[in-house]
Amino acid sequence: MSALWWILIVVIWIVIAFWPARVAGRKGHSFIGYFIFSLFFFPAAIIVAYLVHDRTQVPGGKRPLSANAERWT
Fold it and tell me: Mind listing the pLDDT tens digit for each residue in 10-40?
């Protein structure tokens, strides 16, 4: 394989690794930690990212739309 194909494969691999990192980041977990985890163990990282507890939920069950949402209500 030529160097161009290897570069393309590496770029796609890195782009795909953002998927579990973004899911975990939205749930309040470490984006960088899950990104590194998914670079090496993508299948496990995607499963874990979807199964971890959502840290951003408010105990009352309602989730504010933004950090300033409570100020306006």
Answer: 999 999 999 999 999 999 999 999 999 999 9
Query: What DSSP character marks residue 42?
Result: H
What confidence score (pLDDT) does residue 5 get? 93
Length of the chain: 73
Residue-averaged pLDDT of the chain: 86
Nearest to 13 by CA among 48, 39, 44, 49: 39
Selection from 70, 45, 71, 67 nearest residue 56 by Cα: 67
Calpha distance 1→16 (Å, rounded):
21
